[in-house]
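hi! just following up on the protien thing from before. the input was this:
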Amino acid sequence: MSSRRPNLTGFDTAKFAAAAGQPANDPWARHEAWRYTGPFTRWSRLRGAFPGLGIATVAFAGYMVYETLFMSPAHGHGDEHHGESHH
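and the predicted 3d structure came back as:
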């Protein structure tokens, strides 16, 4: 005896799941192909998602190099200038 209960509607879910897959010969495949080519590829959409990120990254890196090489640290604010009473 089967442990599955009979479906009262006569609808077989196993047959429906097998038939719901991708058809072997999709008549609309040719019309849908443009969605994944040219400017609509996944890489193109990802690049356009963050406009200006490349320029901002280069500008930030340039500022960090400038700060490291040319700006001297402020005097009197380092830990080496404090006495033992401040700890």
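The CA atoms of residues 11 and 17 lie 11 Å apart.
The helical segments are 13-19, 29-32, 42-47, 53-70.
cheers
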